[in-house]
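Record type: monomer structure entry
Structure origin: computed from sequence
Chain ID: A
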Amino acid sequence: MSAKSYGSSRKIVMAIDIGTTSAKVLAVDAAVLKGNKEGTAAAAKAETEYPLNEPFPGRFEQDPDRIAEAVGLAVRKLLEQEAVKPEEIIGISFSSAMHSLIAVNAEGAPLTACITWADLRASSYAAALRASGQAAGIARRTGVPVHAMTPLCKLMWMRDHEPAAFLAAHTFIGVKEYVLFRWFGGPYVMDESVAGGTGLYNLVEGSWDEESLALAGIDAGRLPRLVSSTHVLRGMRQEAAAALGLPADVPVIVGAADGVLANLGAGAVEEGVAAVTVGTSGAVRIGMDRPAADPEGRLFCYKLADGLWVAGGPVNSGGVVLRWLRDKLVPADAAEAARSGLDPYERIVSLAMETPPGADGLLCLPHLAGERAPHWDEDARGVFFGLSLGHDRRHLLRSGLEGIVLGLRTVAEAVAATADGPLREIRASGGFARSGALRQLMADIFGCPVTLADTEEASAIGAAMLALLALGEAGSLRGLAAAVHIVDRREPQIEAVRVYDRLYPVYRSLYDALAPAFADIAAYQRDVITDPQ
């Protein structure tokens, strides 16, 4: 359907990004996105937040209906701004967080909460698969390492601990599938990138993996129908369209996972260019022209679209660590900054940068919530190493920030090995990348230039690019990615690079040295805080 069908010359894509704690909706100008017009691609933006609940330590859940309602509210907020008219919208496209699991009945009503990517209740099942030697085969077939985050492990947990919901479930879906069902009804559909994060999808065959299904105790009939990320849904329910304020016949593109779309939106799909996203969590990813499961099981590989896969690794140790530093080390400074109308995180960075690179020999393993790539160890814990009487809170802050980026460097090394070549540029996105000082820190630790695209909402921009391809408005995703405008470039500083290159081997050695102790202290913590199941 063209913009002419709606009687407007401007073509707008509505990009919806369902994140961990909020739904963001962007109105994206197609002409700007294609490089045919000057300006900012995002003509308008709206956001609605929702809570990430922790009913018990290590369990992170959300209310699926609350998320669906937040998406609808964000859409209405955008339209109320009057920066975009409904008749200008040529299509809607989705980005969403991965690894969520919701059990629904035959009518589509949720039988469970949405179990999010951060949830660790299935840790023992992931550990058992690793101990049995089955994890390597799963990672090789599915392209995703075995971890508690995967719906595969969550289903194994649910089968044993919530058998009533497991047996009553008609379908097991994620959060994007739930929102689309509210808009269109059945059948459920899931794009191949989100499916790739389940541990249930065979990367090479492009179908649900029979061996993983057997481990989970389900068959393919209890999962959504697999579709491409450019699959178009038409014929929205009239009541849903009316509630949203949209035409019922507007095309809706199923879209993809937020991580792979962040690469696309940042223009990081060419050889040697990796995207580093640091939001609540973080990731390093690179575009590839083939599926490439990591033989060592350190990284994921997901299909984004025909001829384009994204390989990389996620870390838990992102913005959540920055928030901990704010709340636990400098709460008074953060509060004073907020009262003065300043960004509390800028105050943290300013204090940290009062100390030299390397924080005078203080290193931080920032694994406060366990860690994913490259270790995939739910028992990993946080460590400050090298503390002396000469260190103060500024050193703790700096080493915490450095620890986040040093952890990403370990993932980047594995990504470069999978891509068969060094990384020559990092495209930064996410809240962490808003700070010029932190982008410079990234350049110094990675030892290569760090660039910033003209929007921090890379996942939503990537979703808009998918829509243009699906609707015949663009010839290729790589062509759209090449039109991304770079607004900042940070070169590595030689002296700082020397410091980090010297400290990095020490940082790398810490996890291996402490892994047995991590397992012991995590077991103690589980005994002290008794899990109800």
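Annotation 1: The longest strand covers residues 22-29.
Annotation 2: Residues 1-7 have pLDDT under 50 and may be disordered.
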